[in-house]
Structure formats: C-alpha cells, structure tokens
C-alpha cells in the first residue's frame, strides 16, 4: 500500500470528469458481462496527464520487482526500464488499446474476483488508486485480494485504502519461497459490496489490450 499518491484535488478532478465522453474509449456495464455490478470506463489515448504521469512513474519503480519475479519463476521474459519501450513491445504484439480505467460503484455494486489479462503480453504488477473517501463518500466496498497457494487453501487480504492511496498487487501470479526455491501463487482481486454512497477508483494496468 502506498499512501497519498494523489491529492484530494486530483481525486476530485478525475471523479468530476467521469462523464466526459471524449476522455474514454469504452464503457463496460459489469452486470451485462456477469463481472459484478457497477461500471467502468477505459481511457482513450492520449491519457489525461495525471494518469499518464502516475502510470510512467509506477512502471519505472516496479520494473526491478517485475524482473526479479520472473527470474524467480524461471520465466525468461524481462521488461525494459521505461514504459514507452514496453508500450512499443505491446503494440508490436497486437496490444495497442489503453487499459487505464475509472471504476464507478453505487450502493449494492461489487466487482467479482478476476485477473486483468488482455493478451499474451503481461506486466506482472498493477495498481489501483482509491478516489473516494471511505465513510464520507461510501461505506463497504473494500478492496480484496485472494491468493491460491500450491496444495493449500486460499488466503484473503483486505486492503484498507483512504482516498488518494494506492495498492500495488500481482496481476496473475507472484513468487513465494518453497522447498525447491520459489513457487507461483495465483492472485485474483475484486471489490466487496458497496453498502451506501458512491465509490470511484483509478485502475493502472501497464500492458495494453488487443486491438
């Protein structure tokens, strides 16, 4: 968890622009696809400056972790030091549609456990930044991670975010120590039911989607 990544003013500006159709390339009704309840919108290119800046800074900070994880999992893939180079790799692999998004939940809405995989090219970490203030703007709506450990039952983590805080987590798998070195733990994430109010969050995914 990373505290105060966005200011209150930056959070409010992103929420206020949610209905600005020119900013987005796609709107998804989660209920229509059985993803849960609520909706989200994928940003169009060019990304808003604050979103692009956070995405590039996070990517640069997370590259050493991503490469270490792949080395421990005996995956030969290595990631370049900067996001534009990685984006060019994604485009060359047929993944060119931007994936950062804003998620919007009202009372009774939730997001089922899932993984954000959009093609063969996957950066192994992603981030979510909460834009709304718990207890003031909404109740419920906790961010949850579920990890499936080898030959064991799943473990659940609930991350207590405040407005402007980020959680960085595994897209699909992460290495954990095992008797033979390291094993992969599979991860899914979601949001529990919002009991009241309205909850907004910014999703930062580094690999793009197929065209």
Q: Would you give an account of this structure?
A:
- The chain is of the alpha+beta class and 211 residues long.
- The chain has a six-stranded antiparallel β-sheet. Strands 2, 6, 9, 10, 12 and 13 form a six-stranded antiparallel β-sheet that branches. Strands 4-16 form a two-stranded antiparallel ribbon.
- The longest helix has 24 residues, at 49-72.
- The protein is built from three helices and 16 strands.
Can you describe this structure in just a few lines?
The protein is of the alpha+beta class and 211 residues long.
List keywords for this structure.
211 residues, Jelly Rolls, alpha+beta, 6-stranded antiparallel β-sheet, 20% helix, globular
Q: Which word captures the global form? A: globular
- What is the CATH third-level topology name? Jelly Rolls
- CATH class group: Mainly Beta
* Structure summary, number of beta strands: 16
- Report how far the terminal alpha carbons are from each other: 32 Å
Oligomeric form of this entry?
single chain
Structural class: alpha+beta
Element string (H = helix, E = strand):
HEEEHHEEEEEEEEEEEEE
Low-confidence spans: pLDDT under 50, at least 5 residues? none
**What is the count of DSSP helices, taking H or I runs of 4+ residues?**
3
Q: Approximately how much beta-strand content do the residues carry?
A: 35-45%
Strand order in the sheet with the most strands: 1-3-5-15-7-11
| Helix share bin | 10-25%
Summarize model confidence as the mean pLDDT: 96
Tally of distinct domains: 1
């Amino acid at each position: 968890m990373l505290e105060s990544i966005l200011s209150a003013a930056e959070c409010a500006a992103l929420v206020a622009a949610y209905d600005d159709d020119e900013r987005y390339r796609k709107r998804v009704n989660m209920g229509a696809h059985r993803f849960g309840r609520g909706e989200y919108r994928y940003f169009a290119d060019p990304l808003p400056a604050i979103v692009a800046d956070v995405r590039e800074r996070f990517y640069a900070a997370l590259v050493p972790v991503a490469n270490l994880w792949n080395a421990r999992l005996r995956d030969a893939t290595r990631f370049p030091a900067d996001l534009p180079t990685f984006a060019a790799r994604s485009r060359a692999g047929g993944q060119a549609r931007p994936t950062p998004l804003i998620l919007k939940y009202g009372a009774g809405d939730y997001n089922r456990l899932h993984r954000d995989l959009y093609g063969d090219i996957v950066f192994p970490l992603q981030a979510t930044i909460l834009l709304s203030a718990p207890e003031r703007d909404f109740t419920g709506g906790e961010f949850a991670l579920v990890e499936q450990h080898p030959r064991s039952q799943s473990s659940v983590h609930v991350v207590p975010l405040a407005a402007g805080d980020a959680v960085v987590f595994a897209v699909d798998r992460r290495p954990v120590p095992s008797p033979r070195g390291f094993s992969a733990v599979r991860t899914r994430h979601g949001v529990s039911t919002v009991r009241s109010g309205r909850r907004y969050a910014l999703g930062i995914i580094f690999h793009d989607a197929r065209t």
